[in-house]
Structures are given as structure tokens and as C-alpha cells.
Amino acid sequence: MNKSCSIPEWKSGSRSEAAGLRAWKQRMLLAERLDTLEILDRTAPDAETLRRTYWELNELHRWLGNQAAVLRRLREAGVGRESRVLDLGCGQGALLREVNAQLGCSVVGVDLRGGCAEAQVEIVRADAVTDPLPEADVAVCVVMAHHLDPARLQAMIANVARSCETLVLLDLIRHPLPLALFRTFVAPLLSHINAADGETSIRRAYTAREMRAIVEKAVNDCGRPVREVRHNVAWLWLRQVVTVRWG
Ligand SMILES: C[S@@+](CC[C@H](N)C(=O)[O-])C[C@H]1O[C@@H](n2cnc3c(N)ncnc32)[C@H](O)[C@@H]1O
Hints:
single chain; alpha/beta; Rossmann fold; 7-stranded mixed β-sheet; 44% helix; binds S-adenosylmethionine
């Protein structure tokens, strides 16, 4: 029997019953958000491994339509040659290069790891939650939100409100269907880091309902008038995209 599908044995009425049930629900139904660091967060891979991991991640975004979804939101926000786009948790800047090539705007990234020679775009080493952010018209944040607990995600949205007019946030959804699809069709094609981190990321991600609640609270508490908040969930729960436009 597949180990991940077996119902654990536990003693009725004992504390281990509750713990066992919780573990089973987490494994099968993703009822609770996983609080585990990804390989990329807890290790310091060599430069070549890091380059290949971010490159593969960017190819995955292209293939899954994440990149197209972000570009569509940027066009809707009126981004053009005069605009500046900030990417929060930008990795090695692949999305920023694409945004610059497609829309002609200037770009800047922020990442805990800082920049690298291959990036070809400006990347500031900073914590997007707590550090002052570069001024920009639109901030994008792609598969980074699940790295933050609810309080830090809320704080990051408030931080963006201090330096940008619009936020476009794209992330995974914690749901059994994308997890099953990822394991079956995507993970076998990926490097071991992205295969393992992809699964952890889905388990760490927010459900659509959780994301809506966090964004709503962040927007209400940040003290800046808001013109629009939009939350879209893609088919098969492949991604969720939040757009916030401040007044
Ligand atoms: C899964 S990677 C995504 C990279 C890129 N956005 C992409 O989609 O290819 C998450 C990135 O967020 C960065 N990151 C995580 N927490 C951060 C924080 N608080 N501030 C800035 N960057 C952060 C990590 O260093 C990592 O590069």
C-alpha cells in the first residue's frame, strides 16, 4: 500500500489520536499549512546549482502561464515605457528581464539573496517585509508569499503600500488537486531541488480563503485608501492572483 495513503493507527482517546488525525489530515487534505523551510531557504547551494534552479523555476512559470498572467496584470495596470516595476523575492531577476523586454519599463528587484552577475538587472538585497522598498509604480510578487507567515505577509503588503501604487501577487494554492498534478506530471521533469521544494511550496501555500482574509486585513489596516482589490483563482487551483490598487 502506498505509505502516504495509509490511515495511521492511534490509540482511541489518547493524545496521539488527535496528533495522528491531524497528521493524516495534513498529509491527505492539506488541512493545515506546513511550516517547513524549502531546500532553497535552508541551504546555500553553489552558484551553478542556484542558477539552474532559478532558471528552471522561470521556465516552469512560462509553461504554466504564470508569467503571462503577471504580464496581463501589468498591462491592465497601464505599465509602459515610463513605468517602474519592482519584483519582491525576484530570485535572479528572470521575470524582470522578461517584463523589461515586453513592456519597455525600468525594473528593480528585491531578494534576501541579493543580486548576481548573471541577473543583468538591479537587485537589492533586502527583506521585503521589513526593509524600505525601492519606489515603483507596480510591485509584483511571484511564488514568494507562501514563504511568509500570515503576519509577515500582511506586513509585506503594508510595506508595498508605502512605496508602490499597485501590487500584483501570484502564488500557489494549498489544495490536493494541484499537489497531485504537480507530483504526477511536473515533478518528474524537474531537478530534485525544484521537485521537493515545489511540493513543500504547495503544502506551505495559503488556501484561496486564507489569502483573501490576509489581504483584506492588510488592506484595511495599512491606512492608505484602496481603489481596487481583486482576487482570481485559476482553473484546477493552479494559481491565485491578487491585485491591489491604492488610491
Ligand atoms: C520560490 S523563490 C521565487 C523566485 C522568483 N520570484 C520566481 O518565481 O522564480 C522565492 C524567493 O523569495 C526570496 N525571499 C523569501 N523571503 C523573502 C523576503 N522576506 N524578502 C525578500 N525576498 C525573499 C527567496 O530568497 C527566493 O529567491
